[in-house]
Design the sequence.
C-alpha cells in the first residue's frame, strides 16, 4: 500500500519568511495530492491540492509542486504570518472509489512575529 | 447544515466498556472513512466504505467494528475499550474523483 514520508516534523520561521515542507510517496499509481492544515483542536481542512498531470499550482501565498518521476511533492508558503502556525499534512491517494487519503506524519509550523 | 457531523464530540469512559461514535454526511458522497489521530498527531486510516460496502480495513483490532446503514452514515463501535484506544477519531467523506476529503469535527475519546 501507499506510504507517505513528510519532512520536517517541526519548522520554525520568522514572520515574512518562506516555509517549505516536503513529502515523498511510494505508490506510483497515486494521482491526487492534497495538503491539509489543522489548527489546535480543529479538524483538518484542505488548503491546496494537485493532480498528477500538473507540475505546479499556486493560490496566493501557497504553492505546491509535484515531481511524479521522483515521487515527491512540496508545499511552499511565502510571506508567512502568525496565523499560518498550525500542523500541516500532506497526503496521497488514487481517485478510485473507496480509496483513502494516506497522510504523512505532519509538520508543526510555528511562525513568530 | 454541517457537512460531516460526528457525535459525541467528547467521550470519557472506563476500560472495558463498549462505546459508539456516530457520523453523518449530507454531501451526497459515496465514500466515508474513519481515521484515528493519536497523541503524536498522526492521521491513520482505519476503515473506508463506498456505498455501504467495506473497501479498506487496515490492521485495526477486531474490537473496532464499523457499520454503514446507508451511504450517508458510518458509525464506529468499539468493544472492550483499552487505554491505548484514547485518541481523536475523525470521520470523513469524499466524492469520486480528484477531490478532497471533508472531515467531521472529531471525537476525543479518553479511556480511563
Sequence:
Amino acid at each position: 500500500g501507499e506510504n507517505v514520508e513528510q519532512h520536517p516534523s517541526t519548522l520554525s520561521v520568522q514572520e515574512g519568511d518562506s516555509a517549505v515542507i516536503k513529502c515523498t510517496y511510494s505508490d506510483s499509481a497515486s494521482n491526487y495530492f492534497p495538503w491539509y492544515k489543522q489548527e489546535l483542536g480543529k479538524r483538518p481542512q484542505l488548503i491546496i491540492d494537485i493532480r498528477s498531470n500538473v507540475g505546479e499550482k499556486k493560490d496566493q501565498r501557497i504553492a505546491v509542486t509535484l515531481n511524479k518521476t521522483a515521487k515527491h511533492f512540496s508545499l511552499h508558503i511565502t510571506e508567512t504570518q502568525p496565523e499560518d502556525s498550525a500542523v500541516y499534512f500532506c497526503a496521497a491517494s488514487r481517485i478510485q472509489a473507496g480509496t483513502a487519503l494516506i497522510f504523512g506524519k505532519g509538520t508543526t509550523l510555528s511562525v513568530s512575529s | 447544515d454541517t457537512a460531516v457531523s460526528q457525535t459525541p464530540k467528547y467521550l470519557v469512559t472506563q476500560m472495558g466498556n463498549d462505546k459508539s461514535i456516530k457520523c453523518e454526511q449530507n454531501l451526497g458522497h459515496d465514500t466515508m472513512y474513519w481515521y484515528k489521530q493519536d497523541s503524536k498527531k498522526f492521521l491513520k486510516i482505519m476503515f473506508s466504505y463506498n456505498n455501504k460496502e467495506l473497501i479498506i480495513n487496515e490492521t485495526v483490532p477486531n474490537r473496532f467494528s464499523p457499520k454503514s446503514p446507508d451511504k450517508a452514515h458510518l458509525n464506529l463501535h468499539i468493544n472492550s475499550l483499552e487505554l491505548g484506544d484514547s485518541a481523536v477519531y475523525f470521520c470523513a467523506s469524499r466524492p469520486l474523483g480528484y477531490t478532497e476529503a471533508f472531515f467531521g469535527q472529531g471525537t476525543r475519546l479518553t479511556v480511563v
